[in-house]
Amino acid sequence: MIKERQREGIAKAKVAGKYKGRKADKNNHDAIIRLRSEGVFIRKIASQLDCNPSTVQRVLKQQENA
Description:
single chain
């Protein structure tokens, strides 16, 4: 019963726009794209910008699709 009510409440909150998730930190996106165009490897970019390699890959994939 409690779980049911919890799911209903979460569904209502999502409809109301309360569950939007965390916004992306776009500070490094331009630097990632610039470094990759210069031929720097993904892991090297990640270590230089102090971020995760998966973040670098995600930004580059978004750039391809845009």
